[in-house]
Amino acid sequence: MLRLKVFLLIIICSSALHAQNFRKSIKKADQYLNGNNYNKAITYYKKALKYKPGNADATYGLGLAYLFDFRNEEALKELTLVWQLNPDVGNNIEYYLGLAHQYDYNFDEAIRFYDLFGEKKNRNRYSADIQIAECLTADSLYSNPRPVVVENLGQTVNSPQHDFTPALMADGKTLYFTSNRAGSTGGLKLDDGSFYEDIYSTTLQEGQWNKPQKLDRNLNGNYHDAVASVSPNGKTLFVYSEKGNGDIYFSNFEDSTWTYPQALSSKINSTFWETSVSITADGQTLYFSSDRPGGYGGLDIYKSIKGEDGEWGSARNLGPTINTDASEDAPMIHPDGHTLYFSSSGHQGMGGYDIYYSKIEGQEFMEPVNLGYPINTVYDDNYFVISADLKHAYYASRKPGGLGMVDIYHVNMEEKVEVEVEEIVQSEPEPVLVENTELISENEEEVDEEMEEPETKAVITVFKGKVLDAKSGLPVGAVIKMVDNKNSTLTAEAFSDPQTGEFELVVTEGGDYGVSTSKKGYLFNSINFRLPDFSEYQEIDVSILLDEAEVGTKMVLKNIFFDTGSSDLRTESLGELKVIKDLLTNSPDLRVQINGHTDNVGNSVYNKLLSKKRAQSVVDYLIANGINSERLEAKGFGEEKPLVSNDDEIGGREINRRTEIEILGQSQNG
């Protein structure tokens, strides 16, 4: 009898201990679930189920933890089991079973459970109908996939953690992104064991992305640092900081390093949450997302236009065509300036965040278009960026099968439907380059005659290369300015890296452009090139050679224009004239001579007189704009000093008709 009592006591104590351990385990599991630490929640729910196998509450919690951790196969198994054990275990079991089936692309079964959820309580109907609409959209898009190839960027770029917010330069050869992989700058970890976020970059060489490099301490500190976007020319990086409840900062690439980030103005940053930003190729308009009051829902997309004073103007909501009562995030304005890409959880989509584009006509945004499957999935798809030539895109997704929790994917855009197209009826001329500018390569795409609709409405030209010392061949840090000769306005500006000489400018409209490259102690360089109103994406790669400003140095002024037989300066010359004036203003001891030359067509005496008058017109402009006449001379050579044969017009006489600037020496009469 004593033995029986002891045995029963052991049974009772063991049961009590098991019950106590179960309660402790499930309490811990619930805490971790509510704290979004799903791995630990899974561990403790499993521990609880060891003490009480088949317990509906623990099984339900385990299913939710798997679902929220995007481990959908396990989630479906546990949630289906608990539905069979006790369908009343939770108020929302039908909703989560619907979500699990939606994640499994089993849309009919998902709709069945969403309907059950909606019938359970009247207040559930709205949420159920939203999910059912998603399933119907997802089913349609999934059944009609777009002919594009989506592939994971692989373990060279992605890690076992979160890799997201890809930011792409216009030429598609440099990619910045955010990652919380091991080895963060601060070395700190979150409760779930992941590291704080840092910013990385990788470059494309021979079709392969190189091993990512972590950016320096100016951008990566001890806590979270995330990239938001990069300007098309790669010289300005926008970063997100948790300061001020979430603000946008910018950093410029100067002297081969990124400057310490500075906050954007209070017209853009607020006391609320600003998450993402994108800038137009001309640097005049910012698109950004914010949850500030007065919007349509959670995050809305706004824009700000830079004023004549160089300051950002007041933020303007893009309105209900773009923004919904849910959230819109990750705006990306294409370099053409006519196409806005963004992510939304409110427009008609497959589930979570989907990626859309909207064409801009005038000041109006057209109805957003879903990019479709397989770019969009039933999971969160976000942070879409695309190269200027529309051939390659990148985005971040939680879809299963990746290397980490969130991975970056590449899209080979075989079908180009994002930008409105028009017939191209004008061929592209070769860019005109001065004799001391070497054309390295030029990639001009041809119109695809097989396409039903031709290419983009806008011109997208990436003008890039290196600035080098003409004698030594060493890199030079200089300022490169591109001016629209039609109205003498500054179109783009860049600074070449003093360590590499590299620079990049992006042009988004056709026109006649003058490019001047300046550095104190050197004679500036002049380039002229013309783009038609309609053309495909192209890259112009040049090597710009700067000569030191010493006696005898000459340079052809490629953006000084006269009508035939006239010495009157055309208005298209004003941009270059200002560059000459700035050179002389910044070098007050410099003396120069303006040389005029003609071809051999016509009377040689007349040609010499005309060339002298043209040179004098340039000198007269400079005198009228404050340059001392004693520092200036004008000389006409007519047809006496041809650079090439006058036998042909193209490549001959057109080159010999020119205006030059020549360094004479130093003057004491500034």
Descriptive notes:
This protein is of the alpha+beta class. The protein has four domains: 22-143, Tetratricopeptide repeat domain (Serine Threonine Protein Phosphatase 5, Tetratricopeptide repeat, Alpha Horseshoe); 149-412, Neuraminidase (6 Propeller), CATH 2.120.10; 426-548, Sandwich (Immunoglobulin-like); 550-670, 60s Ribosomal Protein L30, Chain: A (2-Layer Sandwich). The protein is 24% helix and 30% strand. The protein contains ten helices and 36 strands. The strands form eight sheets. Strands 2, 3, 4, 5 and 6 form a five-stranded antiparallel β-sheet that branches. Strands 7, 8, 9, 10 and 11 form a five-stranded antiparallel β-sheet that branches. A hairpin with a 2-residue loop joins strand 4 (198-205) and strand 5 (208-209). Helix 1 (2-34) packs parallel to helix 3 (56-68), helix 3 packs antiparallel against helix 4 and helix 4 packs antiparallel against helix 5 (93-103). The longest helix is centred in the N-terminal third of the chain and has 33 residues, at 2-34. It is elongated and about 110 Å long. Mean pLDDT is 87; it is low at 416-457.
Give the tags.
Neuraminidase; 670 residues; 5-stranded antiparallel sheet; alpha+beta; Immunoglobulin-like; elongated; Serine Threonine Protein Phosphatase 5, Tetratricopeptide repeat
